[in-house]
Amino acid sequence: MSQLILASSSPYRKELLSRFAIPFECISPDVDESQIENEPPELYVSRLAKVKAQKIGQDHPEKLIIGSDQCCVNAGIILGKPKDRDNAIDQLLNASGNTINFLTAVCIYHPQSKWIQEWTDAFSVEFRDLTQEEIERYLDAEEPYNCAGSFKSERLGVTLCKSMQGDDPTSLIGLPLIKVAQSLRDFGLNLP
């Protein structure tokens, strides 16, 4: 039995955490992800990461829970998952020639001992000037409708970029593994 739970239904986070080659379970926290009125992006993602970890922790107090959330911010406005092609085109047209910030919050929580670590990683992506045709080709190839800002950096999304800046490239995918690994070691888990 695993002592670690990833509070997520994200296939991207699951794939990232599986890189550690340690057993874990994935449980979807099913929380309301609505933004509170006037809530800054940093507080929004950190609140959701904590709520996700705490919700799963209610039923699994003996487990170590990883909650995470990500948002994409363009000119102070949170861009969610586009869900469809038209919204994805709009998001990418607005990103064209601009720098977009991706914020990934993590909360690692052990309810029984009240041990908790929380942080938010920022990663910026400068998009090159994009044509409608390039955007449509990208969407045809990737269909990134379940990705914040319609952007999938681990695949063809990199072709849309001029530059990227951040400490941990896995943060951009949805779970900053460098700090997650350190937190798991801090808690006492043995990693390879």
How would you describe what is shown here?
The structure is a single chain. With 192 residues, the protein is an alpha/beta fold. 34% of the residues lie in helices and 26% in strands. It has helices spanning 11-18, 41-59, 85-95, 132-142, 169-173, 177-187; strands spanning 4-7, 25-26, 64-74, 77-79, 99-110, 115-127, 161-165. Strands 1, 2, 3, 4, 5, 6 and 7 form a seven-stranded mixed beta sheet that branches. Helix 3 packs across helix 4 (132-142). The longest helix has 19 residues, at 41-59.
Task: Provide the gyration radius in Å.
Answer: 17 Å
Structural class: alpha/beta
Percentage of residues in helical conformation: 25-40%
Q: Which outline best applies?
A: elongated
- Give the DSSP E fraction (strand runs of 2 or more residues): 25-35%
Largest sheet: 7 strands, mixed
Low-confidence stretches: none
Total count of helical runs of at least 4 residues: 6
Intertermini distance: 19 Å
Helix and strand succession? EHEHEEHEEHEHH
Task: Give the rounded overall mean pLDDT.
Answer: 94
The total strand number stands at: 7
Brief summary of the model shown:
Helix content is 34%, strand content 26%. With 192 residues, it is an alpha/beta fold. It starts with a strand and ends in a 5-residue tail after the last helix.
What key phrases describe this protein's structure?
192 residues, alpha/beta, seven-stranded mixed sheet, 6 helices, 34% helix
